[in-house]
């Protein structure tokens, strides 16, 4: 069965290459190299009966799920993948359920906390702060979702990618679900002071972008404003 994969450029990403990596091509980007047509990247291939796990690999470094996928399933390591299912009649199967997720709150701090009103911070000190923490509150969560944060240096280079699974349980289905993603600060950041960018993706879909300033200074207030 011929399958057409499409990835549409969004989220101010500077994209030089996109590949489909999956169980059907040994997760080899060379076997899934996509061709750019306008603002979309395209890849066509024939798939046989079975469950086919895949993701998009952006610039050979950023791995994201397919936002248009109809099925997402975890592998043996609990990593969530986009999945195409083809039955023995060469028909593609679809999930008829509609799953939702809403970003209810977002904060940037220097520590992990569950306070309802966390103090937002936009300036960090590489000498004094140990980490930059982004905290997200999610509501209306149904189904299983992959949440990905990507940190970019002031030069626009990808520095760190973290992905976690998001799902509601009977205990928390009515309350906001909090998730923390952080970047530890160390001596290597002293040569990368400036404006850092963090991007949030849910199921591979670009959701939001924010920036924080990283400085090397010995005097600043708790709110991140320089004295």
From TrEMBL:
Q: Which residues form the AMP-activated protein kinase glycogen-binding domain?
A: 5-88
Q: Which Pfam families match?
A: AMPK1_CBM
What is the protein name given in its UniProt record?
AMP-activated protein kinase glycogen-binding domain-containing protein
**Organism this protein belongs to:** Clostridium taeniosporum
